[in-house]
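Q: I'm building a small set of examples for a reading group on sequence design. Run inverse folding on the following structure and report the sequence directly after it, with nothing in between.
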């Protein structure tokens, strides 16, 4: 048995003029739960569709186990449970009928169909709605139907494209718990925009941007791999007049060592808070000089932990920092 569940090698995908993937490569060993992050349009869904055998790459290869997905999509799909983005379902079908239909498509042995449907429905908390039409279900329950559909044939690999998007906070927690539970016995790759989700569910994070891999680490190590620190700063003006946050941001951005500035909450009365990111050079000394020159007063300054969110923004958003 090959040790890696997913192996992607130099994957490129072009849609007309758009190059959605630009030579993406990574490997996922069996049993890992991986968070796949990236801003809108980064290429997450494209990668997942290729991996699930629903889209052919322009160049490069995707393997699931030892199967080349493009060469033998049928055998690959037998090992994969896939929850597509936006989870398209048959609205007018009853949950049971839908799962039965999927069991047929998946060619599950007719003698085992009912047992498998029952087990997947129970696992996904669908017992009480099994006789309802999918169109009547809340979004959270539709996601459960999507997950039940994905695990029906007991695949080794789950590919979940934004499984918690559009859910309320309670449903998010429930679906996350379900994914965590599934992750105990299956390899899972899930895409998301919710960084906290990755911290609570995944043991590894892959970040892509513009069709390229920009980070690959554990959620704990990733912030540090951004190689920088952050400073929380609150400024007031010596005269007591309100500070213009946009103008002050501009000034702070030009301080030696500062790689990014976000405006955060101040302390009221015209004060402004900032979150400054910096690289190798600690900018605090230079900051004091700028503060004096601008007739500001420092009400608070402290180094803070760099969050996964900061790292994500640095790797995928902030052009200056990157
Ligand atoms: N069928 C298509 N035809 C043309 N361009 C496409 C198609 N599908 C995706 N793209 C383009 O490919 C790029 C990657 O899209 P993709 O859907 O893979 O991103 P994503 O990371 O899943 O984004 P999101 O977070 O918004 O879901 C984008 O520029 C997108 O506009
Ligand atoms: Mg997508």
């Amino acid at each position: 048995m090959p040790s890696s569940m997913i192996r992607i090698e130099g994957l490129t995908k072009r849609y007309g003029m758009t190059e959605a993937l630009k030579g993406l490569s990574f490997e996922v060993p069996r049993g890992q739960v991986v968070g796949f992050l990236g801003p809108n349009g980064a290429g997450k869904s494209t990668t997942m569709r290729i991996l699930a055998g629903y889209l052919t790459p322009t160049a490069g290869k995707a393997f699931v186990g030892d199967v080349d997905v493009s060469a033998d999509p049928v055998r690959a799909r037998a090992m994969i449970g896939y929850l597509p983005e936006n989870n398209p379902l048959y609205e007018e079908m009853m949950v049971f009928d839908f799962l039965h239909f999927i069991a047929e498509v998946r060619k599950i042995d007719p003698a085992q169909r009912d047992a498998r449907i029952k087990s997947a429905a129970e696992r996904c908390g669908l017992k009480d709605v099994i006789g309802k039409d999918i169109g009547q279900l809340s979004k959270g329950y539709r996601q459960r139907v999507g997950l039940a559909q994905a695990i029906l044939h007991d695949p080794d690999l789950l590919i979940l494209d934004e499984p918690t998007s559009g859910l309320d906070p309670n449903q998010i927690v429930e679906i996350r718990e379900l994914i965590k539970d599934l992750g105990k016995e299956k390899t899972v790759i899930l895409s998301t925009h919710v960084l906290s989700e990755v911290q609570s569910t995944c043991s590894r994070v892959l970040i892509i941007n513009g069709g390229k891999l920009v980070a690959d680490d554990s959620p704990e190590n990733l912030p540090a791999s951004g190689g920088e620190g952050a400073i929380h700063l609150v400024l007031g003006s010596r005269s007591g007049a309100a500070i213009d946050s946009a103008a002050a941001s501009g000034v702070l951005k030009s301080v030696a060592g500062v790689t990014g500035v976000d405006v955060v909450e101040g302390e009221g009365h015209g004060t402004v808070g900032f979150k400054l990111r910096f690289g190798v050079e600690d900018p605090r000394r230079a900051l004091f000089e700028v503060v004096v020159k601008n007739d500001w007063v420092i009400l608070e300054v402290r180094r803070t932990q760099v969050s996964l969110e900061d790292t994500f923004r640095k790797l995928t958003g902030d052009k200056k920092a990157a």
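The radius of gyration is 24 Å.
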